């Protein structure tokens, strides 16, 4: 059985089709078993939860922290801004390191930094320490999402990659509904220090699981997963088993290469990749604006207190979670349909996993997302006016669910396509996406309240809705011409490959 519960294809199970000559026998993309891949994906999703969770669980504690540290809320807000700045830069370093030195050692380093930062945040008692340790916390957690996309590229073939991305995104999308509620309960029942103790405990547990059970997946080190390695690339449990059984393993000789965080920005020079990164950034900026203004808008219009303001994040989060799995399955379906239509009989050979120029991967990933583009724009505009007119809270909350579903579905489609376009440097590509989206989100969050104060909630979200709708023509351009641009990029024709 495959990860989505469907029977595995003959190719995925390693049984070659009978009508192919021996020289053309397709090989399975990954040597990991289905249950191994499920566990690896679960760990990657668990680790990816900490970056958004560290932000959302922090929000309800802002006022308590400001009072306890004898400072202002605006200064505590600066800790949010610096957190986002570091979140934009760190994945570029960790993503490049993971592509060259392996996923497992980078996971261990990142989660260790995250654990130490949270312990420090729980013990500190002054504003300067808070500001510095929040940046360290961001450095440890923000790279886990780009690392996860690298792992997916390692273990999942294109035919199943859509669902893998969808399931992986459950991790980050747990944070919006759970984080504010958990932060509000912990702060009100215990104290704000326990906010950091809670995520320290969760982070430490994740680090322990990684050390004990996560195998190295980077194809540059373990190939399809069948190459045994020693030292840090081997899970501790397997190392102890190997020592007991006196198993000989291959000692991978790797040298440290300091990652260049600027290298991921080179991807912006390619037209097909630029469109994916830009549209993903626009949707993320819109996502952040909706989330950042949610509590304050409902406090103003409905008079909610802090815990109620935390609970109103649940409908949005429910929409996000519903989209992760359902849209992942749809991406797999679209891929299979396009592949069948184009009669790619040997689409699962090693070369075709990286989408030879004849396969329209852009069409396979984007053909269904235009429904989401239209619904996203309309629902964002409607949400702004419903909040502006102070209608019953049920109406904007239903629209919140729709927005969460559609934007998360778009994240899944664009994230999967970005991985497909950069299979050999997927973590680096995810890092470039993080830089673009964090930059656009930071700029949007800096002005969203100013725009609301100037023109009102309705017109502010009308602007956001129209801006997100403008991504539709760009994605159509990508679907129609992306394959040609990709072919030009692979043929190294500088006059055509860059903007």
Automatic annotation (TrEMBL):
Q: How does it sit in the membrane?
A: Multi-pass membrane protein
Outline the extent of the Major facilitator superfamily (MFS) profile domain.
40-480
Q: Write out the annotated subcellular location.
A: Membrane
Which chain regions cross the lipid bilayer? 39-58, 78-98, 105-123, 194-214, 273-299, 311-332, 369-391, 397-418, 430-450, 456-477
At the top level, the lineage of the source is Eukaryota
User: Does Transmembrane helix show up as a keyword for this record?
Assistant: yes
Fetch the Gene3D superfamilies from UniProt: MFS general substrate transporter like domains
Q: Which UniProt keywords apply?
A: Membrane, Transmembrane, Transmembrane helix, Transport
* Entry-linked InterPro entries: MFS, MFS_dom, MFS_trans_sf
Q: Which protein is depicted?
A: Major facilitator superfamily (MFS) profile domain-containing protein
């Amino acid at each position: 059985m495959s990860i989505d519960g469907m029977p595995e294809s003959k190719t995925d199970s390693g049984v070659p089709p009978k009508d192919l000559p021996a020289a053309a026998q397709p090989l399975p993309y990954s040597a990991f078993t289905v249950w191994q891949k499920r566990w690896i994906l679960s760990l990657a999703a668990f680790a990816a939860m900490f970056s958004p969770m560290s932000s959302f669980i922090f929000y309800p504690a802002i006022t308590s922290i400001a009072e306890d540290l004898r400072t202002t809320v605006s200064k505590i807000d600066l800790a949010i801004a610096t957190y986002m700045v570091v979140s934009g830069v760190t994945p570029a370093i960790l993503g490049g390191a993971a592509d060259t030195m392996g996923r497992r050692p980078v996971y261990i380093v990142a989660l260790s930094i995250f654990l130490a930062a949270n312990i420090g945040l729980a013990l500190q008692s002054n504003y300067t320490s808070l500001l510095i340790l929040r940046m360290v916390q961001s450095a440890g957690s923000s790279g886990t999402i780009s690392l996860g996309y690298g792992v997916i590229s390692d273990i999942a073939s294109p035919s199943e990659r859509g669902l893998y991305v969808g399931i992986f995104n459950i991790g980050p999308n747990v944070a919006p509904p759970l984080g504010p509620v958990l932060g509000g309960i912990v702060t009100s029942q215990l104290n704000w220090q326990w906010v950091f103790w809670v995520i320290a405990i969760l982070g430490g547990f994740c680090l322990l699981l990684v050390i004990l059970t996560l195998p190295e997946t980077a194809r540059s080190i373990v190939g399809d997963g069948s190459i045994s390695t020693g030292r840090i690339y081997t899970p501790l449990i397997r190392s102890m088993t190997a020592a007991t059984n006196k198993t000989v393993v291959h000692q991978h000789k790797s040298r440290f290469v300091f990652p260049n965080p600027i290298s991921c920005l080179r991807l912006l020079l390619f037209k097909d990749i630029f469109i994916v990164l830009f549209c993903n950034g626009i949707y993320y900026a819109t996502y952040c604006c909706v989330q950042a203004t949610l509590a304050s808008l409902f406090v103003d219009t409905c008079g909610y207190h802090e815990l109620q303001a935390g609970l109103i994040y649940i409908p949005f989060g429910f929409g996000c979670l519903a989209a992760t799995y359902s849209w992942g399955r749809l991406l797999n379906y679209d891929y299979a349909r396009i592949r069948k239509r184009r009669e790619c009989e040997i689409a699962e050979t090693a070369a075709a996993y990286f989408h030879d120029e004849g396969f329209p991967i852009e069409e396979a990933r984007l053909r269904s997302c235009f429904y989401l583009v239209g619904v996203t724009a309309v629902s964002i505009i409607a949400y702004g006016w419903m909040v502006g007119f102070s209608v019953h809270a049920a109406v904007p909350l239903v629209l919140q669910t729709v927005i969460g579903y559609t934007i998360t579905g778009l994240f899944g489609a664009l994230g999967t396509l970005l991985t497909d376009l950069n299979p050999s440097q997927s973590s680096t590509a995810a890092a470039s996406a993080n830089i673009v989206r964090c930059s656009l989100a930071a700029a949007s969050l800096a002005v969203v309240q100013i725009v609301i104060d100037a023109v009102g909630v309705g017109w502010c979200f009308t602007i956001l809705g129209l801006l997100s709708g403008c991504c539709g023509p760009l994605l159509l351009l990508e679907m129609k011409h992306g394959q040609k641009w990709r072919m030009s990029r692979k043929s190294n024709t500088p006059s055509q490959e860059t903007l």
